[in-house]
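Reopening this one. Same input as before:
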Amino acid sequence: MPLFFPHQQPSFVRSRYKPDLIKGDMDSIRREVLDYYATLGTKIIDESQDQDTTDLHKCVAYIRDFTPIVDKSSQLCILVAGALGGRFDHEIGNINVLCRFSNTRIILLSDDCLIHLLPKNHSHKIFIQSSVEGPHCGLVPIGMPSGSTTTTGLRWDLNNTEMRFGGLVSTSNIVKEDIVTVQSDTDLLWTVSIKKL
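Same output, byte for byte:
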């Protein structure tokens, strides 16, 4: 966080923007960082005994279980900063979380792109914020091939197009309109570039 506020004292920024909760298997956090936030009142949940789920999975499950929203599947949106750009196996693990919690809108954000899941058999309308998003985008079938995907609003729209690994995957496409629509018979990953501010 101090990097976002270079003209403020790092200690002030850390105490002002402290997490409510730190949850995970605690294998990648330094003990002094954990102790620092614990003294500021951050709740610590050590789940080092659970090696079958990722830290992101643990956190998303916690948010879903303890967010007081009546219809969580349609109203809850989780933004995950720093979810991309590191080790490839971690990135794939984060993408797997999108699939494991397909009824919750989760956006993975990095310095240069964002990714979220478009669940199958829905008509998706994506509103493009052209001042910060695009123009590059992609649609990637995840889990199984797509027998039929149709889009509007892209330079190279898909029209009842089959996509699969080892065949066509819609990468390096271009956003052409302010609204992109997507209809597919399988789950797709939507990715769009983020402009440098």
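So the earlier flakiness isn't reproducible anymore. For the record, The first strand starts at residue 21 and ends at 24.
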